[in-house]
Write a structure and sequence with these properties.
Rossmann fold; two-stranded parallel ribbon; alpha/beta; seven-stranded parallel beta sheet; binds UDP-4-deoxy-4-formamido-beta-L-arabinopyranose
């Protein structure tokens, strides 16, 4: 199929683009590079020896977006593009609603205008809020607790209404738990700008000597070691989930929702220990105050994705840490930040 991937230069997007190419799909990527660099696409072209059509574009540029669809004749869209920092969303809510929700409305309008009715949407377990009722199923109540999570929840509601209004739409909503790790080559990976918000990239930067120590946000939770528990999932397992969802939608219409997680939880201390083991590096840490809004425990019930899609996560925490370290060690400063890198030759 010919697939348009929005946000395809980003962490999860790039790993999914690579997996789509290896599955024989033709891929076009649009990305405004606000939180990514085109180097990820150049490296995917090297790894796969396949070409990616790339166009630097913002979803808020309706005319530009429509011209991509007018030329594209896409079979499906995989929609990653979006701002995703929980803390930042609380200080810049209008930017988040405009970028994530209005940007998605532009995308859906262009799809409708050009009769592209198949969509895989990158949602997030953050729509479940700080629910302590674990494991979380697709029927768990949606109670997002921050503007970022609310943009995901509102987009899911828009997609539900769109599906109800027009039976031609086939929509897969994928709710990610905690994506970590990197492609086994170490050539692509998570490259957050500034101070990482999330645990794994922060731990990886401590292992690489870029940061002094990890601050554990509270060790007084009602968990075995007192630290927060999450469902970490390898980004390559997550990418495979997107392929399975795209294949599922080929003969079907309607809207479908799946949790993409392992169904297993790991504590902060378990993650730090696993990363120290995988990297062979000490990971100093100290305990600080809880981070507002954090749940004590969050992990998925991934049964539905296996039942419907035949998909499940295969890689364990040790593999996640080994691959995340493989990327970090080979790229201590992330992707080359040089601005003079020519975009991929096959630009739109
Ligand atoms: C994991 C655990 C922290 C950093 C977030 C978003 C979610 C999704 C994934 C986009 C928690 C603890 C963390 C640190 C720590 N993103 N921690 N020290 O909060 O589960 O989910 O990222 O879709 O929307 O909410 O992930 O990695 O920030 O935290 O102790 O420096 O690590 O308290 O228990 P989270 P996280």
């Amino acid at each position: 199929m010919k697939i348009l991937v929005t946000g395809g230069a980003g962490f999860i997007g790039s790993h999914t683009v690579l997996t789509l190419l290896e599955a024989g799909h033709e891929v076009v990527v649009i990305d405004n590079l606000v939180n990514s660099v085109v180097d990820s696409l150049e490296r995917i072209e090297e790894l796969t020896e396949k070409k990616i059509m790339f166009k630097e574009m913002d979803l808020l540029d309706y005319e530009g977006l429509l011209s991509v669809f007018a030329e594209g004749r896409f079979d499906s869209v995989v929609h990653f593009a979006g701002l995703k920092a929980v803390g930042e969303s609380a200080t810049e809510p209008l930017r988040y609603y405009r970028n994530n929700v209005a940007g998605t409305l532009n995308l859906l309008d262009c799809m409708q205008e050009t009769a592209v009715h198949r969509l895989v949407f990158s949602s997030s377990a953050t729509v479940y809020g700080a629910s302590e009722a674990v494991p979380l199923t697709e029927d768990s109540p949606l109670e997002a607790m921050n503007p970022y999570g609310r943009t995901k929840q509102q987009i899911e509601e828009i997609l539900s209404d769109l599906s109800a209004s027009d039976p031609r739409w086939g929509i897969a909503v994928l709710r990610y738990f905690n994506p970590v790790g990197a492609h086994e080559s170490g050539r692509i990976g998570e490259d957050p700008k500034g101070i990482p918000n999330n645990l794994l990239p922060y731990v990886a930067q401590v292992a690489a000597g870029r940061r002094d120590k990890v601050t554990i946000f509270g060790d007084d939770y009602m968990t075995e070691d007192g630290t927060g528990i999450r469902d970490y999932i390898h980004v390559m397992d997550l990418a495979a989930g997107h392929i399975a969802a795209l294949d599922f939608l080929v003969p079907r219409t309607g809207i479908f929702r799946w949790n993409l997680g392992t169904g297993r939880g790991s504590s902060v201390i378990e993650v730090i220990s696993a990363f120290a083991e995988a990297s062979g590096r000490p990971i100093p840490y100290e305990v600080g105050p809880r981070r507002p809004g954090d749940a004590a425990v969050s992990y998925a019930d991934p049964t539905a994705a296996f039942t419907d899609l035949g998909w499940r996560a295969h890689r364990n925490l040790s593999q996640m840490c080994t691959d995340h370290w493989g990327w970090q060690e080979a790229n201590p400063e992330g992707y080359a930040k040089t601005a003079d890198h020519a975009p991929p030759a096959s630009c739109l």
